Amino acid sequence: MMTMTTTRRRTTTITMTMMMMMMTLMMMITTMATITMLLVIVTIMLLLLLMTMLLLMMRWRRRSRTRTMTRATTTKTTTTMMMMMMMMMMMTMMMTMMMTMMMTMMMMMMMMLMMMMMMMMMMMMMMMMMMMMMMMMMMMMMMMILMMMIMMRCDYVDDDADDNDENDDVDENNDTVSSNLTH
To answer: What is the DSSP letter of 183?
Structure first.
């Protein structure tokens, strides 16, 4: 009897340690994946911002021929930039939320494995996959709409600046001339 109990205890301890090791490994993998994903997302956001900045700068260079930007146009461009920044913030927030959801799902999976409910685990996996697909689709749609809106806004700003080009130039020149004469 004693021998039986000892062997049983040993096997149980070994299995427990194995399970614990597996759990830790899985957790490490998930954490690493989440961190890498977040880093990638942040880098993408920064790149997008830089691209938009460059585009705007190029447009300014092309539009403004040795003249300073008028106040109205500058304010409009700043608003567009603010919109872009807000969009980036929103996207990062959404991504972080998705990552947290994934982590929680993984934890649930671990629990299921421990309980040995294979069918339940499979169901959960399917559900998670569907949810992820839906979320990704929604994100893509939102991004497309926002980008379209921003592009439209930028075009509008450019057109406005182009229309008011000559008049503004004349006014500014007159002002400078008069000020020079007076002072």
So the answer is: -
Both tokens of residue 15? Answer: 């299995």
State the sign of the Cα–Cα–Cα–Cα dihedral 92, 94, 97, 99: negative
Q: Tell me how far apart the terminal alpha carbons of the chain are, to the nearest angstrom.
A: 111
Confidence check: pLDDT of 175 > 60: no
CA distance 164 to 85: 27
3-state secondary structure of 83: helix
The tens digit of pLDDT for each residue in 51-90 reads 777 777 776 665 555 455 555 555 666 666 666 666 666 6
Burial class (CB in 10 A: 0-12, 13-18, 19+), 114: exposed
CB 103 within 8 A of CB 38: no
13-27, 69-83, 156-170: least confident range: 156-170
* Nearest of 39, 48, 31 to residue 95 by alpha carbon: 39
Alpha-carbon span 85 to 49, nearest angstrom:
8
Considering only CA atoms, which of 166, 13, 30, 51 is closest in space to residue 107? Answer: 30
Question: Which pLDDT score is estimated for 1?
Answer: 45
Are 106 and 29 within 8 A, CB to CB?
Answer: no
**Residue 19 near residue 114 (C-beta atoms within 8 A):** yes
